[in-house]
From TrEMBL:
<keyword id="KW-0808">Transferase</keyword>
<dbReference type="InterPro" id="IPR029026">
    <property type="entry name" value="tRNA_m1G_MTases_N"/>
</dbReference>
<protein>
    <recommendedName>
        <fullName>Ribosomal RNA small subunit methyltransferase E</fullName>
        <ecNumber>2.1.1.193</ecNumber>
    </recommendedName>
</protein>
<keyword id="KW-0489">Methyltransferase</keyword>
<dbReference type="GO" id="GO:0005737">
    <property type="term" value="C:cytoplasm"/>
</dbReference>
<dbReference type="Pfam" id="PF20260">
    <property type="entry name" value="PUA_4"/>
</dbReference>
<keyword id="KW-0949">S-adenosyl-L-methionine</keyword>
<feature type="domain" description="Ribosomal RNA small subunit methyltransferase E methyltransferase">
    <location>
        <begin position="73"/>
        <end position="243"/>
    </location>
</feature>
<dbReference type="GO" id="GO:0070042">
    <property type="term" value="F:rRNA (uridine-N3-)-methyltransferase activity"/>
</dbReference>
<feature type="domain" description="Ribosomal RNA small subunit methyltransferase E PUA-like">
    <location>
        <begin position="23"/>
        <end position="64"/>
    </location>
</feature>
<keyword id="KW-0698">rRNA processing</keyword>
<comment type="function">
    <text>Specifically methylates the N3 position of the uracil ring of uridine 1498 (m3U1498) in 16S rRNA. Acts on the fully assembled 30S ribosomal subunit.</text>
</comment>
<dbReference type="InterPro" id="IPR015947">
    <property type="entry name" value="PUA-like_sf"/>
</dbReference>
<dbReference type="Pfam" id="PF04452">
    <property type="entry name" value="Methyltrans_RNA"/>
</dbReference>
<dbReference type="InterPro" id="IPR006700">
    <property type="entry name" value="RsmE"/>
</dbReference>
<dbReference type="InterPro" id="IPR046887">
    <property type="entry name" value="RsmE_PUA-like"/>
</dbReference>
<dbReference type="InterPro" id="IPR046886">
    <property type="entry name" value="RsmE_MTase_dom"/>
</dbReference>
Length: 248
């Protein structure tokens, strides 16, 4: 059943109007007719099975029927801070980490980031990444679309550490000395409701000064095992481990 994210809180009325951009997909792409059902999710995370009751040239009207009580979200909020990688790797990270339950993705400019975003490019990039996140959230039947946050510098990211209850830095140098227990230990002590920030470097990893800066702001470091993972692989490994620890 097709799922649509509505950018308002749950209304008091049982009938809602759907306009652009969902109208085009609902009517012209999916070719829904009066009597068909879909799922609508409001930004306060309430979701309902809804029935299409009327169609005009600009709007479709849906009647909210059954409220869905099942939750599919992780019990902790996970933000992935990714040093800007090359090519379309960030798009892959956004799509797959959304399916795996990420709460937000925070791009940042690391010392070894080759890619640079100017103000104009950043706006377009965020818009495209947000669309990818929404489509992945719809596909995976989530009730939360991860936020693609505004680009930060390394110093700004370190300063933002106070927003989170736990910080972890994926450090390939730790992998070289086979320090692979820190992440496992961290996940086992994080309580439900925590806000976890995991920081990943771009191709080439993080500099020692960057790692030191994050640690000064409360982060712990560790690896995801003895192998060195690509910048687009490490976030997905981290999310899969979280799902295993908290959901399976």
């Amino acid at each position: 059943m097709q799922r649509y994210f509505i950018e308002t809180s749950t209304p008091n009325e049982p009938t809602i109007a759907i306009g652009a951009p969902h109208y085009h997909h609902l009517i012209n792409v999916m070719r829904h007719e009066v009597g068909d059902e879909c799922i609508v999710v409001f930004n306060d995370r309430n979701s309902f099975i809804a029935t299409l009751v009327t169609i005009t040239k600009a709007e479709a009207h849906l009647q909210l029927k059954t409220k869905l009580e099942k939750t599919v979200e992780l019990p902790i909020e996970v933000t992935l801070a990714c040093g800007l990688p090359k090519g379309d790797k960030l798009e892959l990270i956004v799509q797959k980490s959304t399916e795996l339950g990420a709460f937000a993705i925070q791009p940042y400019v690391a010392e070894r980031s080759i890619v640079k975003w100017d103000d104009k490019k950043q706006g377009k990039k965020r818009q495209r990444l947000q669309k990818i996140a929404q489509e992945a959230a719809e596909q995976s039947h989530r009730i939360q679309v991860p936020e693609i946050k505004a680009l930060l510098t390394t110093k700004q990211l370190a300063a933002a550490a106070t927003q989170y209850t736990h910080l972890f830095v994926a450090d390939e140098e730790e992998a070289k000395i086979n320090e692979n227990q820190a992440y496992k230990a961290l996940l086992r002590k994080i309580p439900v409701g925590s806000r976890l920030l995991i920081i990943f470097g771009p191709e080439g990893g993080l500099s020692r000064s960057e790692v030191d800066l994050f640690c000064q702001n409360g982060a712990i470091t560790g690896s995801f095992g003895p192998r060195i993972l690509r910048t687009e692989t490490a976030p997905l490994y981290a999310m899969a481990a979280i799902s295993y620890e908290f959901e399976l």
